[in-house]
Amino acid sequence: MVFHSANFLIFFIGLLVVFFTFRRGRLLILAIGNAIFYGAAGFSLLVVFFAVSLATYGAALMMHRPRLRWLFHAGIAVNLLNLGFFKYTLFVADTVQSVFDWFGVSVPIFEWVPAEIILPVGISFYTFQLISYLIDVRRGELEPTRSFLKFWVFISLFPQLVAGPIMRGSELLPQLDDLDRKQVRWEQIKFGLYLIVIGLIKKVVFADTIAQYVNPLFEKGLEMSAVEAWWAAYLFGFQIYFDFSAYSDMALGLGWMLGIELVVNFRTPYVSANPKEFWSRWHISLSRWIRDYIYIPLGGNRRGRLRTQFNLLAAMMLSGLWHGAMWTFVVWGAVHGVLQIIHRWSLELNRFGVIERVRRSLPYRIIAVFIFYHIMTWTWVFFRAQSMTLAWDMTVKMWTVSWPELFTSTPMFAIAALYLLHLLELGLRGREETVSRVWHAVPFPLRSACYFAIVLLLFYFLKGETYEFIYFQF
Question: Whole-prediction pTM value?
Fold first, then answer.
């Protein structure tokens, strides 16, 4: 079930009615609701998810016993094998087959592996959440819950199950302890509805509309001109932002309506002036997961400059591979790793006082944001292209483009408007209380007319072609 479907609306309204009617059974209600939500994608996939969750729960509960410490490694292995089989089997088989073909050796790899494997929705997200739970318990940062009911609700909470944010046990489990006693205020429900509406607008009005222009451009493949390659990259950058942040906004909104606070996953990332800032604004829950469970355990920045650079590159390449079982994703991660390394090198210049002062100035930030935004736009080519051949062809064309021709082309006005909308979101986010006070000063009839117009707008766009959320494939 997708959030912008009639099936989900019926499911959620029914769940809310039962949730608020039977207050003492909220945990059980959510547990059943989560199973129904995920089971709609396929009963067999639900069974796999439940089995992996049960194995992780048991491992975390018993692994501190002297003779059962091996259960930690077993729990990690179960999760990685589950992810590896469903997501990477065909990728590995295809890669091995290509290597043999290159050497002229005939090995029928695909006779030994399934011709097609159905990827369980949200498998990358729930795998990372299960692994982080095991690691946190192992480190002594989290006490393992003895209630499997609570654990199942934590790991399968439907608002964030399919595409995040990636929640940690220390953030979500304490909220579940108080769920039966918690009073969900009307202000929380209104704020949740506000976030859901914002998410719906981002998804059906912007992301899905932009997709209708992005898809034909990428379908041109090698026939794309240099200017069209930039258009495709610009537009896809906004499509994936509106699409993914829409899901995150709606997840947060659904959580607020259930009395559960999820972590914020986006903070207007295209105003970033460097790679480090970008990853503190884009997919924040994944960024901190990569930092805390890959980069720091590898040594972080504690083992010298060369090792730090290796750790950055390895962490970002693993992040790319997490996104998809294609070499384009690995290269996308590697590019971001290289950008992180170059940024770290550049910070060495801050020892010169004049350079540090310049970097703190507003003109420098504006220029830095402009340049980095275009670098970031280029990197999306590797994320979206269906092959390295197309990604490389687009790269060559994009950096040899006629810049005057590009910036004076008609679609650039629409792209500039999208960026201004991004800046507007930057100004509004975090100031919701002020905006609410100003909004409620508007006469009620006018506000009602605006609400009605928004509903009509959403119905209008929902009648057209709609797409699943991009991150559902991960």
Answer: 0.91
